Amino acid sequence: MKKAKLFLHKLFHWEYWPYQVVYFPVYFQYLFYVLKTRSFFYFNAVNPTIKNGGFFMESKKEIYDLIPQEYYPTTILIEPNEKIEYILNKINEAAIEFPLIVKPDIGLRGTAVKKIHNANELEAYFSKANFTVLIQSLIPFKNEIGLFYVKLPNQPGKITGIVSKEFMILKGNGKNTIRELIHQNNRYLMQLDALEMEYQEKLNTILPNGETINLVPYGNHCRGTKFVDASFEITLEMEKTFNSICNQINGFYYGRMDIMFESFEDLAKGKKFKIVEINGAISEPTQIYDPKHSLWFGWKELTRHFHYMYLISKHNHNNGAKYLSFSEGVTEFKKHNKHYNTILDF
Predict the structure, then answer these.
(1) In this structure, are 150 and 101 located in the same domain?
(2) Which of 45, 57, 174, 346 has a CA 20 to 30 Å removed from the CA of 281?
(3) Are residues 285 and 188 part of one domain?
(4) Are 95 and 238 members of one domain?
(5) Torsion, Cα of 257, 260, 266, 267 (10° steps)
(6) Residues 43 and 157 both lie in one domain
(7) Which residue segment(s) compose the domain that 85 sits in?
(8) Residues 6 or more apart from 345 whose CB is under 8 A from it?
(9) What is the CA radius of gyration of the chain?
(10) 183 falls within a domain
(11) Dihedral of the alpha carbons of 32, 162, 271, 61, in degrees to the nearest 10
């Protein structure tokens, strides 16, 4: 029954369709640009200071190092196999307090991102992590968006879309267990297997009336977050603010900035916000996944942004940025697949 219910939900909501289907028209566009640039990996030049343009195998820590420190949370990098005493010492030196966030330095759609509440949880995480990890202070702001920024050749930068994120928040009624409440929402139900691993017996707890719980406090679509198109919040003031910010990030021309913030009014003024991370060439204009949008709308936005990436890459290449050679690109892609399997095994 559960499988049939979820199958029908996926069938009638294209946001869950395989990316091979969603990106079907983009493949032809990509091949056209390959012919024009004579490079299968032309997109490497879209953000020259970010490894592979931000398409694969890019280090989040190296990207943070490009950003003025006041715009992102306190962050430290921990190599694999470090002892817990060393890790706790580094946390104390950086003045990071529990709860905190841990995530892979080279990430994959929110996999292995965890909110850690104490030293025991931290030790358990690092006992399994065989990859480089970032530890970050918890950002205090309540709202999260993805803001897509594009700086076309010889033009000021612009915000091409904003996606707001509705987290998996359950509200108790004093009667149903957390598990039963999850079954009442198809979006949440699709995450049940992962939630069972995370919460185990806690899912059988009855949530008191009016009490809420954020099941997955990370704004990632594949982990249950609902994406809502908030592009109507874009203002001239906000674009001016983010042009000023992005002009301070050397070599950043194209990508999505995931941001936590207090209010859109403050954000437009450049106040009370932090950049969670910046995604480069691999970025999607994720406002397309708002359930109100049609597949046709999604295709138009994807092809529009792919065209922007081509124009920027070509311009940067003409100014000295290199395209990856075919052999270099294949090597990087193999590294990506290997790392992907490592993260999935976490």
Answers:
(1) no
(2) 346
(3) no
(4) no
(5) 10
(6) yes
(7) 74-138
(8) none
(9) 21
(10) yes
(11) -50
Is residue 82 located within the same domain as residue 24?
no
Residue owning tokens 């719980």: 213
Amino acid 198: pLDDT: 79
Q: Is residue 87 part of a domain?
A: yes
Q: Are 39 and 328 in contact (CB under 8 A)?
A: no
92 falls in which pLDDT band (50, 70, 90)? very high
Collapsing DSSP to helix, strand or coil, 48 comes out as: coil
Residue 223 has pLDDT above 80, yes or no: no
**Neighbour tally for 226: CB within 10 Å:** 19
Which ranges of the chain does DSSP label H, i.e. alpha helix?
2-11, 19-22, 24-37, 60-64, 84-93, 119-128, 178-183, 186-189, 192-199, 236-246, 264-268, 295-318, 326-344
Number of domains in the chain: 3
pLDDT recorded at residue 338:
80
Two tokens at 104? 């892979």
Q: Specify if 3 maps to a domain.
A: no
Q: Are residues 179 and 245 in the same domain?
A: no
Phi and psi torsions of 255, nearest 5°: 160, 180
Same-domain check for residues 147 and 284: yes
In a domain, 4, yes or no: no
Confidence band for 218, pLDDT divided at 50, 70 and 90: low
Reported as a single tens digit per residue, the pLDDT across 188-199 is: 887 888 888 878
Q: pLDDT tens for residues 241-279?
A: 999 999 999 999 999 999 999 999 999 999 999 999 999
Crossing angle for the helix pair 119-128 and 84-93, nearest 10 degrees? 120
CA angle at 15 for the pair 10 and 18, rounded to the nearest 5°: 75
- Three-class SS state of 69: helix
Using alpha carbons only, give the angle 183, 185, 187 rounded to the nearest 5 degrees: 115
Q: Are residues 116 and 259 in the same domain?
A: no
